[in-house]
Design goal:
CATH topology: TIM Barrel
Largest sheet: 7 strands, parallel
Structural class: alpha/beta
Strand content: 15-25%
Number of domains: 1
Radius of gyration: 19 Å
Strand order of the largest sheet: 1-2-3-4-5-6-7
Distance between the termini: 22 Å
Shape: globular
Oligomer: single chain
Length: 283
């Protein structure tokens, strides 16, 4: 948790608890699980206990809200980077209730609730048709299977904004069914974040996957944010034996491409020479 988060698309992060369980391929190299283990917390898995926090922790967003109000500038809060707000466990219910109250107490903070379990939103969220204006609702979409499975749940809800985190992006994602052919009962996608995986065991995100998402967003008028290449970045063909550069076939671009494990900082976050920092217009 922290003020002034290093995550490019938010201002702060807040965790109502720590701990989660893997649910899909995007979880395979989970940074939150790795971080928890690094600091000695055994809190990952369906049967493990979660880590909870005291009054000082819960008072921080109240300070952020007061500061935002004083400066008359709204702040975005990513909730939760070390957990999933909609994990289906009864021992989390009282902490969820406390989170809903905190959201109500902080009208100058826009709460970005990102989940890999949108099928549980209706069971656990306290709102039905009248969602708070400071709640943005998102789901992780790392590949087409997750898009097909999760978007029909996410887009049921009239939150202020509905957003997708396509990170780590593990394959091509076609959003046509929810952009040009959106069923009347569903709401639109308001924002798309895309990015590659970080860490030494990261899987490469091919350029065509990211470019395809960006182009779909441009055609549909959806703000696009490119967070990072991650550990792997596009590179020239290797000129020497033993090079770490790897060859891939990019089906979207219809060509052979090369990727190099440069590390997140070196790889950067430009796509086609542009830094994409778009946000929903009202934000």
């Amino acid at each position: 948790m922290g003020k002034n988060s290093s995550i490019e698309w938010t201002d702060h992060t807040f965790n109502p608890w720590w701990g989660c369980a893997r649910v899909s391929p995007g979880c395979n190299n989970c940074y939150a699980e790795a971080w928890a283990r690094r600091v000695g917390e055994d809190i990952w898995g369906a049967k493990q206990d979660r880590r909870f926090f005291g009054e000082r922790h819960w008072s921080e967003p109240l300070k952020w809200n007061a500061e935002a109000q004083e400066q008359e500038r709204r702040r975005r809060v990513f909730c939760a980077s070390m957990a999933d707000v909609f994990e289906l466990r009864s021992d989390l219910d009282r902490w969820r209730d406390r989170l809903w109250t905190l959201i109500d107490q902080t009208p100058w903070l826009d709460w970005l609730l990102l989940t890999k379990r949108p099928q549980n939103i209706r069971k656990k969220a306290p709102w039905t048709t009248n969602w708070p204006t400071n709640v943005w609702l998102g789901t992780t979409v790392e590949d087409q299977k997750r898009a097909d499975g999760r978007l029909p749940f996410l887009l049921q809800f009239p939150a202020k904004f509905r957003f997708l985190s396509c990170e780590p992006l593990l394959g091509q994602v076609d959003l046509t069914a929810w952009t040009t052919k959106l069923p009347p009962a569903l709401y639109r996608i308001d924002w798309v974040i895309a990015g590659g995986e970080s860490g030494a065991n990261a899987r490469a995100m091919l350029p065509g996957w990211a470019i395809s998402l960006r182009d779909q967003c441009k055609r549909s008028g959806i703000p696009f944010h490119f967070k990072q290449w991650g550990h792997w970045a596009p590179a020239e063909a290797p000129r020497t034996e033993g090079s770490p550069v790897r060859k891939f076939w990019d089906t979207v671009m219809g060509m052979e491409i090369f990727m190099e494990p440069k590390g997140k900082k070196t790889a950067g976050r430009q796509l086609d020479g542009v830094t994409w920092n778009e946000l929903p217009v009202a934000a």
